Amino acid sequence: MPLIHGGNLYFIRDSHEGADKDGPEIFSYSGPDGRLTFRLERNSYDSPDEDKRRTFALPAIDPADAPGFQKLFATATGRGAETMSVDRGNAASSDWDAIQLYDRLIDPAEVNIHTHDDDFLESLGEAIAGFVPEEPPLGYGPHIPAAYTYFGQFVAHDMSHMQWLPGIGPNGEDGWINGEQPHGLDFSSLFGTAPNPDTPTSQWQERAGSALGLVYNGAPGITDARDLPRAGSTGRHCCVDPRTDDNLALAQMQVLLVRFHQVLSAELELETTAGQRETRRHLQAVTLTDYLPRIVDCDIYEDILQNGRTLVNTSGAFFVPIEFAAACFRFGHTMVRDVYSNWIIHYPPGSNISVAPAEVENFLFYTSAGGGLNQNQLTGNWAQAWRHMVDHQNPDLPPAILARPIQASIERDLHRLDHALLADLQNPAKTGKFNLATKTLRRGASLSLPSGQQLETVAGISTPFDIGAFLDSKPERYGHLNHVTELRTHTPLWFFILAEAEAAGSGKLGKLGSRIVTETIHAAITAVPNSILSAEPFQRGLRTDHGSQNTFTLRDVVAVAYGGVD
User: Fold this and answer.
1) Is the pLDDT of residue 506 over 80?
2) How many degrees, rounded to 5, is the angle at CA 144 between CA 141 and CA 146?
3) Which of 346, 381, 443 lies closest to 121 in space, CA to CA?
């Protein structure tokens, strides 16, 4: 089964029928199969996992009672769901790996969404992917270590992850177990494993409600290398989020965070539920006190923390805005390097370290879909301990590998990705290569995203970004697009966010990108019961030698998981 990065089916909330958050909600999807619509209702069920948990269920809809509605039935499998749409008895089924639900900040029915010509989107995508900037000078930007690229990808996935569980309802109905606040940043995708009848490929290390697998042929002297829990003849991962094995770096970020959870639970002598709560709060603190300050404008960040959100709210069930998911938070593509020069390091402390590089193609190859597993496991020397991917002062380690600054360009390897590895669920038969920048721009257009200027107005940005001046300053990159007036007046949102960041010259997001990203993540944390924003403030439960008591960093996570960084 191909990977599904960026290939999920996006159902976006159209309206609320009920007067409060307990009313049904209407979601729709438009694609090659036409417009699918379904109604989502909430019911309180007795859950096998907790005494009481509010759960989403897909109710039985009689087309005679609800003309025009189609019901989506779903039964969980190890990978995703088999889904059936029903319209007055005419049924069509499809194996869809994932269904994702989103909200909107701007209703397309209330604004004039500009439709860009497909040839223009392709030309702009080529410009974004065709420019290779020089390495920034030492004084440029905050020099973000590479681990934050993939921590950000994990956060994006966890916020949009909805875990399906068959038979959770009192009468055997299927539903999402995190349905009360489906997009809350609760790190639930770290815990548990998906149902899988196959035999594990290794002896799993199962602790505190989480699981890790073993690598194949670990390097001499390396005793702490781990893999995802895998099973079966292909080594398919058994994590609850089907996207976990999208690429090697994301999979190894999952391993790091699960390892942190297992060590934290053991050191604090916590049972499963308490251990998960503490892990959740510590990783929320990493996101809020370490990750966000590195990537967003400091004034916007402080304003939101002190004065609250003005754009993204959590009244009712919180769903990630599609503008965030399909554009504003996709700045992470620009942080990916073609080559990580010291990805592989052999590091028994005090030894003569040997290093080897990794390329984007390696990241896609060493997955169950990529075909690079050995004996259906990750080969040990590709496991990543992340010590040299965070801030460190260890003279025995190579210098920290840095992410690329956020800018309006992506590395060339992302210009020629293979459709066979990154499936497009709307066009599953596609083969050959594609440009990730063009694909992202086209997806934004298909989802009727607002322009950067329209979202800037709604967000109340006091000093609008001058996209025209930015384009004029870079004629070698965009001069051939000067004839497209709409590029300056109705700028595609994703490109607007990247150009704004590059123009800021700090390596961080600009004003609009910072506002949308910070408010969405802040809302996602607030939406979680007993989070560090909805309950008592965070106080670290583990002592490390780094940071104040009310902060936690990714360096702290690595230090706990692997017994130190420095």
Assistant:
1) yes
2) 145
3) 443
